[in-house]
Design goal:
With 163 residues, the protein is of the alpha+beta class. It has helices at residues 11-24, 30-53, 56-62, 79-87; strands at 63-70, 76-78, 91-98, 104-108, 111-124, 129-143, 146-154. The protein is 33% helix and 38% strand.
Length: 163
Amino acid sequence: MLNSPSVRSTPLLGLLTAGLSLAVMPATGSAAAADDARTVAALDTEFQAAVKRNDAATISRIQADDMILVTGRGAVFTKGDHVKAAQNRERTYEQQDEAPGTQTVRVWGDTAVVTALLWIKGTAQDGKAFDYRLWFSDTYVRTAAGWKYAFGQASLPLPKETK
């Protein structure tokens, strides 16, 4: 025992104790935040690709059970809505991709927000074509099961670019 009278505290013992304490502490700081940012960035890119493929299983795995998305027009969609839309192939996507270089991930502890410009192009089940860009922010939270997409906010479609 370190507190017993028979064990004397020495500088070496202090260094060993401090080293052991650092070895078992959870990772924090900029290196861990950078790792989390890379993980969440990849997860959000995987989510966008799953939407593009109508991959209901991947959408379900990535989203938190109580996830919601609020669109620029005020519509609210749940995880169940997203999964059902993919299963029913309510939209067929030609594009469902983040514009290169626009993705930004900010991490605050167990919360991360991904913001990017998204290009969406395809056809709805009724045959109506769509083609627009919008900004989104997706909020992820760290859970016992890993990072989960918990909340999304999307802008209105942006005006068409003039060339």
